[in-house]
Design brief:
The complex is a heteropentamer of chains A (389), B (524), C (263), D (232) and E (357). By secondary structure, chain C is α/β, with parallel strands linked by helices. Helices cover 39% and strands 24% of the residues of chain C. A 6-stranded mixed beta sheet of chain C has the order 6-7-8-3-9-10, sandwiched between helices. Chain C has a 4-stranded antiparallel beta sheet with strand order 2-1-4-5, with helices on one face. Classes of the chains: A alpha/beta (389), B mainly alpha (524), C alpha/beta (263), D alpha/beta (232), E mainly alpha (357). Bound molecules: adenosine-5'-triphosphate (2 copies), urea (URE) and magnesium ion (2 copies). Chain B: InterPro entries: ABC_transp_permease, ABC_UrtB_bac, ARM-like, ARM-type_fold, BCAA_transport_permease, HEAT_type_2.
Chain lengths: 389, 524, 263, 232, 357
């Protein structure tokens, strides 16, 4: 064929559409960008967009359809871990490629997947270290608050082990879970307040995007300020904050590998392109679009894949996998990111940002450079020596 | 720290006239050494001049800018004020805002609250003292006692007394400690527990230990009471949210028998209307922004009522007498409405801010914060229920509505235009859902999926109360709210929710027609 | 089949003392209103008893109590010597041998006339037998016979819901006959029937007399006179018995004229 | 007052009314007779507009109301006491009566005239009971009272005496007589209770299988020829 | 509502023809190579395999809803429990090939569990798991139904407590500590009865078994609804109290059909897992159960072929639309639902019958 087909597997309806829609758009933008420069191996890229509708079995069905019916060379997609788990067997069976752009809990390494989001050591651990530091407020007690699903559960398991290794007692850790879509945080905020009476406390939030607004609103109304009890979130980025009145949130934190507010020419260019694209394609609310970490991860992922195809001179899965190892790309986060030669994860810098009144983040801490991913967290027993495929 | 505070104390009384802030104090603020910045803030605070207050406040608000060569300006309304010189100029080129982080913010607050303890403004003093309650240390004791000596206001005095006692807990003199501990028997400040607990086990003095035990007991019982009242309030609050979410459904489903799966989307439309009203106010009446809800309420009612009327005229009206089919049709409507909103406004949430008067809360019983937005919603729910009750039971329209819903054909035969009543009833139910949407927009997300989060709960509330029973809906909503809030601290949010569902299942066994079951022949 | 069902099925009806139904001091109170007030009544085996009384006297409520639809607030109701009706559920009572025609015709509107009769037929009405049931020709014959009797032959494949008011009344009577109950309760059987039909119904009841015990509630005095013959007529008023006796006697009773018949 | 011309009605494929015509004047009462299932109720429903007619016309005071909806006919002055009472089960007796005033407005819409309580004293006692809780006969009384309150020009009664105790049947008879005597109202009475109909009607009409098989003035009602159509 | 023409001669011909075509699909897939005119892509085969499971669930649901008038908004729970019961076996059949190379499934290793909890005992046996597929939904339905029907819970009250039930189960299964893999559920199965689960032959077999079960269930349901018991069920639907006054105890009739329906639904779930490759708690979400109702309603409630047609057409459209019009498909689907209710009150099956009439 004279085009190379690329599958885009993000929910455009259902509960996850809130987060995933913009990933679809940024993927299309990136594909346009590559095509404008002549495509890959002289062929144009052609996006095949499907809507798995936030339904996990439908993810598997759609993945199979993309690979087997549409014959795509690669799929960019998924957000939740469960959707990824649901499509994995399909990618393995049909030996195809998935690029997964979201931070996740680790404990996984698949030949057919490239993980361009953060593993726990590229996000969660540094964030907690920061909270314990003098600049971060010197927290002694921790509330691990999350939505009840695997990503928060796993992350918290790792964090608990990590905190223990730092000498934090179990009685100084409170682990709380809420159901998906939970919207009444009165009791939980009251409990946090109670817990915080026992010493300098920080909240580590793995609350799923949807529940964050009610949580932060409650926090603000209960008079818990960032200076009293800082909250660091792993699933709240610029996109989520678009829907929030951020004034009461100022000072709360998020840890990511990218923020829109990072200043460097690559990022400026990225943001400019995205805004122009949003206006050109008449995306809803085009005037206020923002970029965020998973969007950057998608963008980087597609470019790296394109480079790998050029290098392999083929879209054949195994050849591309081989060519991916060690690929580098000058990313909007200001660093040249490298695809690890062995573990299919990107080396990524870590940033901690405080929420600003305008819904952007003010970077208050960052790693000196990209960090290699530890998908198998050393804080989980039995993971020693499991870093390679 | 200690020295710093003494400095503040002394300088508070020796208030100098105008003198610029020395540039060497300002310089570190523009730098990036966190320790130096914290020290600079303390030093500026210690100046205790109006300029210092102004600078710190500006820093807190993000109004302080720096030029590339390190000069600081307070920039407001396109005017730049130089705190070193007092000069006012136009903002210089190339200035950049000074970022502060939590640590600095904390330092600023601390400095400001010490300054504000002597402010002539009662509210500022009260805020400062409340703030100090959290952090009072022995070092601050002399300062606090001075403030206590000067304070005239009874409420603030009382607070200050507790703050002073808190500070004195660490006093080296046993007698002072004991006095402090005893004084704190009236406090409801949970933050004192660790200190008291520590004294209980390890204070050198027997008397202090006894006093600590006594105070701790008093404190704990007061905290338990506060917690109980808190849960009660949270329950009413959750109940009123459920009620507002369900009330429209109590009409469209309870009264009209339409299994209205699009009810959630009507809530959502109400919330989006609120968003649009807010946008309109931002654009055209920014000064009145705080009152955008006053416009949003009627707007949301009208918009959703109109949507409801259109749905009724085009789809629902074909389905009277086929209640089960309404499930299918309204499910379709719900899909369409959600996708329409997604197409117009995007899949992401949109921002709806609480008006200033609904932000924050009032503190009662010492430590319980009742959020204004929650209180407002409770009051609002009560008003809407009262309104609906009046319409249904005290007006001719209400009589016709009930008659049509019970026997459509006969209502026609006595001269009621059933089509009109159907339309108005569905419109009313939808409009009330819209009002519910306004309320929900003040608490959580406003996004295309907003309604999906409430639809199941709404049906549970209406059914549990007894279909067609307004009073039942109210009691069911409040009951579920309370049950949830008293279970949650014990069982956690997930198990509490499961327990509530199991409770509903068991409850219906006992009352198979809901809480307010219709009895007798008329029920058949 | 619950234990209770089994017990009742085994027990059978004991009418050794000659009466099939005993109501003793039955009261029914609805939100403070006494619909039945210490009502006592008994019906002998094979008797045809007419019950009359003003609107709201409690006649239908009494039938509700007998058939288990309404639980008495106080008092006892026995079917035969041994069956305490207040402890039995509706289907157990029906199964034990009490059949009823309602004041407002109630039939299975979505079933055909034929199916209505088939469902009512006296057969084992538990799940398994029902699943495997197939109509024998004898049973078909029985249905045809009843169809003729109620003059709905030719309409047997029509949905019962499409019948006219009077036709439904007849169908309900037909269902009652299919059930072959020992005690038949008829709540206003001739309401909505023309005079000629009323006469036919009277004939039918006179035929059934003796084979079944029958309780008839009616406001049509001509009809009551026709079927009461020399039997007892009971007049209910405000939930209790106002008068009792032969038709001429009650018709002459001043109180009955005052509250019921009018002058 | 009422002119019905050759109306036809079908339930699906079954032809229920076949060219039924009738004319009724102000101050007159017509009895509609016929065996079970001949189409009496169907005819009355067609007049009320509950069922559509496939052909023919209905005129009230010269105005063609064939196409009007039931509520419009009610407003034009028709009141209906349906077979099976059709009271509003979960409204109180008082509210049921107020529904009878639905066509009125202003103060009139809120005042239930005392006359109905004189006629049906039981309703007054049970004002706050739910309609559905009443006994069958009480409901029937309520349905009649509701229709009377509307002060109609034409009142349609479908077996109004069904389930009512003898003394009250007499009272109802008296009311109908009174209305007739007042002369400003037409009454269409469908009745199985022959003597009652005979006593009150000025004219009659007998239906059989959807057709008018006999009609005339009251005096010929007792003819064996007429009675033949009523026998089984 | 009596159906002498329920399966007219034409309907029978249609059923047989459809069955033959459906049975041929996997064989065409196996025996003709990709590119051949008669080749049926595996994607198609697995899609239709899934639809057949949905069709079975819809049929089961319609037995209680369409015939007995009991609207369940919680059938997803039976479907999911059947699927989980079978999934437990499939999880154990993975053996030591999980990421942690343990005898326990990965999620248990992760929770630091050392042994299987009691409720997993015996699930390493295929046959035990089959028994559980029937027993778990069956017993749950029986117990739940017994109490609900005994309390005479009807109409929306019953619907809502079924919804509460499925919702409660969903929350319970979401919890990691419950022991069923939390939010992720079970996935990444490797083999069934020793055969690789991704082998074309295994897939074809699973497909054919599903088809056979669906046909068997259709005949069973037909036999039931045309029996006198079927008429009693419809009488329950239309006038339960009248039925009691002629001597039937509705409790047992309802319980019979309710439990049967739950079991059929469980079987559908069990056939679904190995073909789709994942089972997780979102199958128990209230919305999923409502979708089953939608299938039955679109196809035509109170008919036997209706729910099957409905499940195929709604899911077929959804599959097609989500790929072909990812941004607009909800409009199209929603509109179709509205139009069906408005113009086809008896669903798609009614369309067929109207033509016949
Ligand atoms: N659920 C109830 N609530 C209140 N009152 C009730 C209820 N059920 C019945 N009643 C009252 O009980 C009384 C007896 O009613 P019942 O139906 O038994 O009368 P009846 O003798 O059958 O009258 P009719 O001849 O009119 O049918 C009536 O006054 C009725 O209003
Ligand atoms: N909805 C319907 N669909 C089809 N046929 C109907 C319908 N309603 C009534 N019928 C039939 O139409 C005919 C006339 O019915 P209608 O109710 O008018 O009779 P009627 O003269 O009022 O009888 P009754 O004296 O029993 O009240 C009857 O044969 C009846 O079975
Ligand atoms: N991987 C996540 N964020 O679910
Ligand atoms: Mg009665
Ligand atoms: Mg009639």
């Amino acid at each position: 064929a004279d085009t190379i087909k690329i599958g885009i597997l993000h929910s455009l309806s259902g509960t996850m559409a809130i987060s995933e829609t913009s990933l679809k758009d940024v993927a299309l933008m990136t594909i346009d960008e590559i095509n404008a420069k002549g495509g890959v191996m002289g062929k144009k890229l052609e996006a095949v967009v499907v809507d798995p509708a936030s339904n996990w079995p439908l993810f598997a069905e759609k993945a199979r359809g993309l690979i087997a019916q549409d014959k795509v060379s690669v799929v960019f997609g998924c957000w939740t871990s469960v959707s990824r788990k649901s499509v994995l067997p399909v990618f393995k069976e049909l030996n195809s490629l998935l690029f997964y752009p979201v931070q996740y809990e680790g404990e996984e390494l698949e030949k057919n997947v490239f993980y361009t989001g953060a593993a726990p050591n590229q996000q969660a651990i540094p964030a907690v270290e920061y909270l314990m530091s003098k600049d971060g407020g010197g927290a002694k007690r921790f509330v691990l608050l999350g939505t009840d699903y695997v990503y928060p559960r796993t992350t918290n398991k790792i964090l608990r082990a990590f905190l223990k290794s730092k000498g934090v007692k179990d009685s100084d850790i409170d682990e709380v879970y809420t159901p998906f879509g939970h919207s009444d945080y009165q009791t939980i905020v009251a409990n946090i307040k109670k817990f915080a009476a026992g010493g300098k406390t920080a909240v580590i939030s793995t609350i799923n995007g949807d529940s964050n607004v009610p949580f932060y609103k409650e926090l603000g109304n209960a008079g818990l300020k960032a200076t009293d009890v800082p909250v660091v979130a792993f699933s709240v980025g610029e996109e989520e904050l678009r829907g929030v009145d951020t004034k009461p949130l100022v000072g709360h934190l998020a840890a990511w590998n990218y923020f829109e507010s990072i200043k460097n020419p690559v990022n400026a260019e990225f943001i400019k392109k995205w805004k122009a694209y949003a206006v050109a394609k008449k995306l809803p609310n085009a005037a206020t679009v923002v970029t965020n970490d998973p969007m950057e991860a998608t963008y980087v992922g597609i470019h790296m894949w394109a480079q790998a195809v050029e290098k392999a001179k083929s879209t054949d899965t195994d050849k591309v996998i081989a060519a991916m190892a060690g690929q580098t790309y000058k990313a909007p986060d200001g660093f040249t990111l490298t695809m690890d030669a062995t573990n299919h994860h990107l080396h990524k810098p870590v940033f901690i940002g405080e929420i600003r009144p305008d819904g952007q983040f003010n970077v208050v801490w960052k790693t000196p450079g990209p960090v290699r991913a530890n998908p198998w967290s050393p804080y989980i027993p039995g993971n020693e020596g499991k870093q390679k495929l | 720290m200690l020295r710093k505070l003494f400095l503040i104390a002394c300088l508070c009384f020796a208030r100098a006239g105008y003198a610029g802030i020395p540039p060497d104090m300002l310089a570190p603020l523009a730098g990036d050494d966190p320790d130096a910045r914290v020290a600079a803030i303390a030093a500026i605070g210690a100046l205790a001049t109006d300029d210092a207050t102004r600078l710190l406040t500006a820093l807190q608000n993000g109004d302080v800018y720096t030029t590339p060569d390190g000069k600081l300006y307070i920039v407001t309304d396109d005017k730049a004020y130089n705190p070193a010189t007092g000069a006012i100029t136009a903002p210089p080129d190339g200035i950049d805002g000074i970022m502060i982080n939590n640590r600095l913010r904390g330092a600023i607050e601390e400095a400001l609250s010490a300054l504000k303890m002597f402010s002539p403004d009662r509210a500022q003093r009260l805020a400062a003292v409340t703030e100090l309650q959290k952090t009072a240390t022995l070092a601050q004791a002399p300062l606090i006692e001075k403030a206590l000596a000067r304070e005239q206001d009874a409420e603030i005095r009382e607070l200050l007394r507790l703050v002073a006692a808190t500070a004195n807990l660490q006093s080296p003199q046993a007698a002072k400690r004991k006095a402090a501990v005893e004084a704190l028997a009236d406090s409801s400040n949970a933050n004192l527990r660790p200190a008291l607990q520590a004294m209980l086990t390890s204070d050198a003095d027997q008397n202090v230990r006894v006093a600590a035990a006594h105070t701790l007991q008093a404190l704990d019982s007061r905290l338990a009471r506060t917690e109980f009242v808190g849960n009660l309030f949270y329950g009413v609050s959750l109940g009123s949210v459920l009620l507002l979410a369900a009330l429209g459904l109590a009409i469209t489903f309870g009264l009209m028998g339409i299994i209205n799966m699009a009810h959630g989307e009507l809530l959502m439309i109400g919330a989006y209307t609120t968003y649009l009203c807010q946008l309109a106010f931002r654009r055209w009446a920014p000064d009145a922004l705080d009152w955008y809800l006053a416009a949003a309420l009627p707007a949301a009612f009208i918009v959703t009522a109109l949507v409801g009327i259109v749905l009724e005229r085009t789809v629902i009206r074909w389905l009277y007498g086929r209640p089960l089919e309404t499930l299918l049709a309204t499910w379709g409507i719900s899909l369409i409405l959600m996708q329409a909103v997604r197409t117009i406004f995007g899949a992401q949430n949109v921002e709806v801010a609480n008006p200033a008067w609904m932000s924050g809360g009032v503190t009662v019983l010492g430590s319980l914060v009742l959020a204004y937005n929650r209180i407002a919603i409770i009051v609002f729910a009560a008003l809407v229920v009262a309104g609906v009750w009046l319409i249904l039971n005290k007006t001719r329209l209400g009589l016709f509505v009930r008659a049509v819903m019970q026997n459509r054909r006969m209502a026609g035969c006595v001269g009621v235009s059933t089509a009109k009543i159907d339309m108005m009833t569905f419109g009313l139910g939808s409009g009330i859902a819209g009002l519910g949407g306004v309320a929900l927009s003040q608490l959580g997300n406003v996004g295309p999926d907003l309604g999906q989060g409430y639809i199941v709960d709404s049906f549970m509330v209406v059914v549990l109360g007894g279909v067609g029973q307004l009073a039942g809906t109210v009691i069911a909503a409040l009951g579920l709210g309370e049950a949830n809030k008293f279970l949650e601290p014990v069982a956690g949010a997930v198990l509490a929710k499961i327990a509530i569902l199991v409770f509903i299942i068991i409850f219906i066994q006992k009352r198979p027609q809901g809480l307010f079951a219709m009895k007798g022949r008329s029920a058949e | 089949m619950t234990l209770n069902d089994a017990r009742i099925a085994q027990q059978g009806l004991d009418t050794t003392h000659g009466a099939i139904l005993y109501l003793e001091e039955i009261s029914v109170v609805f939100d403070g209103f006494r619909a039945l007030n210490k009502l006592s009544l008994d019906i002998s085996v094979g008797e045809l008893r007419c019950i009359i009384g003003p609107n709201g006297a409690g006649k239908t409520t009494m039938m509700d109590v007998i058939t288990g639809k309404t639980r008495p607030t106080s008092g006892t109701a026995y079917f035969g010597q041994t069956m305490d009706l207040s402890r039995m559920s509706e289907h157990q009572i029906a199964h034990a041998g009490i059949g009823r025609k309602f004041q407002r015709p109630t039939v299975f509107e979505q079933h055909t006339v034929f199916e209505n009769l088939e469902l009512a037929m006296k057969l084992d009405k538990r799940v398994r037998p029902t699943l495997f049931a197939r109509l024998s020709s004898e049973q078909r014959g029985k249905i045809d016979e009843i169809l003729k009797l109620i003059r709905l032959n030719g309409s047997e494949q029509r949905l019962a819901g499409l019948l006219s008011h009077g036709q439904k009344q007849w169908l309900e009577i037909g269902m009652l006959l299919m059930q072959e109950p020992q005690l038949i309760l008829l709540d206003e059987p001739v309401a909505g029937m023309s005079d000629a039909e009323t006469a036919r119904t009277a004939e039918l009841l006179n035929e059934l007399r003796g084979q079944h015990s029958i309780v008839v509630v009616e406001h049509d005095m001509a009809f009551v006179t026709e079927i009461a013959q020399q039997g007892v007529v009971t007049v209910l008023h405000e939930g209790s018995v106002l008068a009792q006796g032969r038709m001429e006697e009650v018709q002459a009773d001043e109180r009955v004229i005052e509250v019921y018949l009018g002058r | 007052m009422l002119q019905v011309e050759k109306i036809n009605q079908y339930y699906g494929s079954s032809h229920t009314l076949r060219g039924v015509s009738l004319e009724l004047e102000k101050g007159k009462c017509m009895a509609l007779l016929g065996r079970n299932g001949v189409g009496k109720t169907t005819l009355l429903k067609c007049l009320m507009g509950v069922l559509p007619v496939s052909a023919g016309s209905v005129k009230l005071e010269g105005r063609d109301i064939t196409k009007l909806a039931p509520h419009q006919r009610a407003r034009a002055g028709i009141a209906y006491v349906p077979q099976g009472r059709e009271i509003f089960a979960r409204l109180t007796v008082e509210e049921n009566l107020l529904m009878g005033l639905a066509t009125h407005s202003g103060k009139k819409a809120h005042t239930i005239k005392g006359e109905v309580y004189e006629l049906f004293p039981v309703l007054k006692e049970m004002l706050h009971r739910r309609g559905g809780d009443l006994s069958g006969g009480q409901q029937q009384q309520l349905a009649i009272a509701r229709a009377l309150l509307a002060e109609p020009k034409l009142i349609i009664l479908d077996e109004p005496t069904e389930g009512i105790q003898p003394s009250i049947i007499k009272d109802i008879g008296n009311v109908i007589r009174l209305l007739r005597q007042r002369g400003d109202i037409a009454i269409l009475l469908c009745e199985q209770y022959f003597d009652f109909a005979h006593e009150l009607a000025d004219q009659f009409m007998v239906l059989s299988r959807g057709e008018v098989v006999a009609s005339g003035v009251q005096t010929v009602m007792n003819d064996p020829e007429v009675k033949r159509h009523l026998a089984v | 509502m009596n159906h002498p023409s329920l399966f007219s001669r034409r309907a029978w011909t249609g059923i047989v023809a459809c069955a033959v075509v459906l049975a041929a699909l996997p064989l065409l897939n196996l025996f003709f190579a990709d590119g051949h005119a008669l080749h049926v892509p595996s994607y198609m085969v697995s899609l239709i395999g899934k639809f057949m499971c949905y069709a079975l669930a819809a049929l089961a649901l319609d037995m209680v809803w369409g015939y007995a008038g009991i609207l369940s908004l919680g059938h997803g729970v039976f479907f999911a429990l059947g699927a989980y019961a079978h999934g437990m076996y499939l999880m154990r059949a993975i053996g030591r090939e999980g990421v942690y190379q343990s005898d326990l499934p990965d999620f248990m290793v992760f929770l630091d569990w050392k042994t299987y909890p009691w409720f997993w005992s015996g699930t390493d046996s295929f046959w035990v798991s089959l028994a559980l597929v029937v027993l778990v939904p069956g017993v749950l339905a029986f117990v739940f139904g017994f109490f609900a029907f005994r309390s005479r819970i009807k109409g929306v009250y019953f619907s809502i407590i079924t919804q509460a039930m499925t919702y409660a189960f969903m929350l319970l299964f979401f919890r990691n500590n419950t022991g069923f893999g939390g939010n992720n559920g079970f996935t990444d199965f490797k083999r069934i009865l020793g055969y690789s689960i991704s082998a074309p032959g295994t897939k074809a077999t699973l497909y054919l078994v599903t088809l056979a079960v669906l046909l068997g269930a259709l005949l069973l349901c037909r036999w039931i609804v045309t029996s006198k018991l079927g008429r009693v069920l419809q009488a329950v639907r239309d006038s339960e109290s009248r039925l009691m006054f002629i001597g039937y105890n509705p409790l047992w009739f309802k319980l019979f059909v309710w439990t049967l329906s739950a079991v059929l639904c469980g079987i559908a779930g069990a056939l679904y897992v190995p073909q789709v490759g994942i089972i997780n708690p979102s199958e128990m979400s209230p919305a999923n159960s409502i979708e089953m109702v939608i299938w039955a309603a679109v196809g035509g409630r109170g008919t036997l072929l209706g729910p099957i047609i409905g499940a195929f057409s709604v899911n077929g459209l959804k599959s097609w639309f989500t790929g072909a019009f990812p941004n607009l498909w909800l409009f199209a689907l929603g509109l179709i639902f509205i139009l069906v209710t408005r113009y086809l009150p008896r669903g798609l099956a009614g369309l067929v019958r109207k033509e016949q009439a």
